[in-house]
Specification:
The chain has an 8-stranded antiparallel β-sheet. The protein has a 5-stranded parallel β-sheet with strand order 2-1-3-4-8, with helices on both faces. The protein has 9 helices and 18 strands. By secondary structure, it is α+β, with helices and mostly antiparallel strands.
Length: about 350
């Protein structure tokens, strides 16, 4: 066995054992297509070696040249739904931009519920799995950090976020937002706390030096792209000002500003409201190297603010239209107490504020 095969096996074992908590005799449904089948096979073989009962499910016929976009409302396939619902653990290895558990189950809330990481239906971005240099201790600490940060935010009142480039905004936490959720279902390298603000819950200036998301009702081309063949991060940052949760001013590179304008105002209700504040808790550089390659967002040591139409009917985190905008190396205070410095969470502070009460 060569080094890459050993690392692939090690990473699959970590995912199944330490993240999914798999136990001998449990069933594991693995959803794959032609681009992920080798990784899915590696996960299945690892599952067998652990005494699990894996089942690989190939949905390649629905991908085609359009990569699922022709099936944005994929027909309900009862055997697929039955397998997901019956399995103790489900691993979706297909691309998360165009496939998710809402698509498979015909349940609009199923995607966001799976992102919480509590029902053992996981999104596994398998790209480069044979190369991941996993720091098991840090990834498990990241998951603990995320849960404690949720607790701390629910007990607080307001966060203040700044960056060296000029980002400066405040967001309500505590009981005011629609929700404060751990995002621990995109495994094993990613973690985030999603604050879903109520109307008027975010005010201030965003200096978007990172990328914008290419998903959730996005325009045909990302507003601020960062992917092979479409990198515009060398252009001036995108400036977005929010007042009581609503965009009141925006400026920057002319092409990016025009894309933003068209996306926000292409249809009513306008997508000019703060839809989410995402506090990224991972420190994994492999998350940045191998994941989110479709748009270059959700980088480690970042914060993102999503714009959208703040329509959370039948959703937890994502409104009907939703695009994240990344800002690097944030410094964050919670009610005046420092909890994050230049994108690194201060675990002692987060633990003190968010530890489970006896």
């Amino acid at each position: 066995m060569n080094t890459q095969d050993e690392r692939l096996q090690h990473n699959a074992l970590f995912l199944l054992c330490k993240i999914a908590g798999a136990k001998r005799g449990e069933t594991v449904a693995i959803i794959q297509d032609d681009t992920t089948k080798d990784y899915a096979r590696a996960l299945a073989e690892c599952a067998l070696s652990m005494g699990l009962r894996p089942l690989q499910i190939d949905i390649s016929p629905y991908a085609g040249e359009t990569r699922y976009t022709a099936y944005s409302n994929m027909p309900l396939i009862n055997p697929l739904r039955a397998a997901i619902e019956a399995a103790d653990i489900c691993l979706m290895t297909t691309e998360q931009k165009n496939t998710d558990f809402s698509l498979f189950l015909h349940d609009p809330d199923a995607c966001d519920i799976s992102l919480l990481g509590e029902n053992r239906r996981y999104t596994v971005d398998v790209t480069g799995m044979e190369h991941w240099e996993i720091d098991e201790e840090e990834l498990l600490q990241m998951r603990q950090r995320t849960r404690r940060l949720v607790n701390a935010l629910k007990r607080g009142r307001r966060i203040h976020v700044t960056t060296a480039l000029g980002t400066d905004f405040a967001a309500d936490v505590g009981t005011k937002p629609h929700g404060i959720y751990p995002v621990l279902g995109i495994v094993p390298l990613y973690g985030e706390v999603a604050v879903v603000p109520s109307a008027g819950g975010v005010t201030g200036k965003l200096v978007v030096d990172g990328a914008s998301q290419f998903a959730y009702g996005s325009s045909p081309y990302p507003i601020r792209p960062h992917f092979p063949g479409g990198d515009e991060l060398e252009r001036p940052p995108l400036l977005i000002e929010l007042q009581a949760g609503k965009v009141v001013r925006y400026d920057g590179d002319a092409a990016q500003v025009e894309r933003l304008r068209q996306w926000m105002y292409e249809a009513e209700p306008y997508a000019d409201m703060a839809d989410e504040v995402g506090l990224v808790t991972t420190r994994s550089l492999d998350n940045d190297r191998y994941h989110w390659l479709i748009d270059g967002t959700h980088q480690s040591r970042c914060v993102h603010v999503a714009l959208g139409n703040a329509n959370h009917t039948n959703t937890l985190i994502h409104g009907k239209k939703h695009i994240d905008f990344d800002m690097h190396a944030p410094t964050i205070t919670l009610d005046g107490l420092l909890i994050c410095q230049d994108g690194i969470y201060l675990d002692d502070a987060v633990e003190r504020l968010g530890a489970e009460k006896p």
